[in-house]
Write a structure and sequence with these properties.
Elements: E1 3-10, E2 14-17, H1 18-25, H2 31-38, E3 42-45, H3 52-64, H4 70-73, E4 75-81, H5 92-100, E5 106-110, H6 116-128, E6 135-143, H7 153-156, E7 161-169, E8 179-184, E9 192-195, E10 203-206, H8 208-231, E11 236-239, H9 244-254, H10 265-268, H11 275-285, E12 296-303, E13 307-314
Helix pairs in contact: 3-5, 8-9
Bound molecules: coenzyme A.
Amino acid sequence: MSKIIATGSYLPKQVLTNTELIEQTGIDSSDEWITQRTGIKQRYFAAENETVSDLATKAASDLLKQLDDKIKSEIQLIVVATMSSKTPTPSVASQVQRALGIESAWAFDVNGACSGFVMALEIAEKLSKDKTGGYTLVIGAEKMSNILNFEDRGTSILFGDGAGAILIENDGEGLTGYKSQLVSIPDPENSICVLSEDLTKDKMSMDGRAVFNFVLRQVIPSLAEFIKQEVGTFDYLISHQANSRFLEIIAKKLKVDLDQVPANIAHVANTSAGSIPILLDELVKNHQLLLDGSQKIVLVGYGAGLAWGQISLSI
Ligand code: COA
């Protein structure tokens, strides 16, 4: 079977605590409000001249530096999940390919907002079945600071920048134990959207309460049903990091220990498509995830669309 053999991530240098964000942007808020309502204590913001493809490339480089050099030349597919790049074309994936010097690979982006990484993994997993060798690189990368509106205190305090990457070794049979369910539903209210007046003025807006209810009423029950029907017990549930309250509710609903629903939202905030692979890499680096095939994990991403997706696999 195919398997995930390595992970990597990149978080930009600039760290902003809640208090620093408030001081620098003039948002009418407090560290106490943000911490209590979201669990977020700080976020990373990329430098002005650092692009989404820079973040994605650095996450991929962090991954590749752990491996034999020849693996890079055998990457056949690069899929990047992102919603925040300022360059519609070439794709971020093509820019990563060029930056890393990968001679020949099929490279394209997926825009699935906060469900982007699970969508990218689903596509990569399906396409990898065509390949009896080589490697597939799947990246989630966001520069959310490109699109935040600091006049909207309910939204701008939630997000941060960053990227994470995984590498799949292909053998034509798909990932071990892979099961998935992806859903998109119409959202006439555009609960989360980026208004595109022109490429320099993109601004994100969100109805936080509507999104909160969507996660509670649709995503979490659907996840619970998926786990009941398709998964059973698991080692870790790696959720998109949108609000620590969601993680607590998920653990309660699934009747699992909160330790099985790991969190890094306190220090990275919501990095949209970057969120799941950044957390995966953190868990690999601190040896909670072993990448030896002995563990079962569930991934869940959710957000704009509205869309969500859940995937279980052995890792
Ligand atoms: N600081 C201080 N007060 C704030 C604030 C901020 N940053 N943002 C909103 N408020 C105020 C509101 O204006 C409102 O004031 P009012 O009662 O005087 O009208 C009050 O806090 C409560 O607002 P509400 O929106 O009901 O708060 P909430 O408990 O729903 O928390 C979110 C707001 C955004 C944290 C929460 O709705 C949430 O997490 N939603 C999901 C968003 C999300 O995860 N999006 C990404 C999905 S991928």
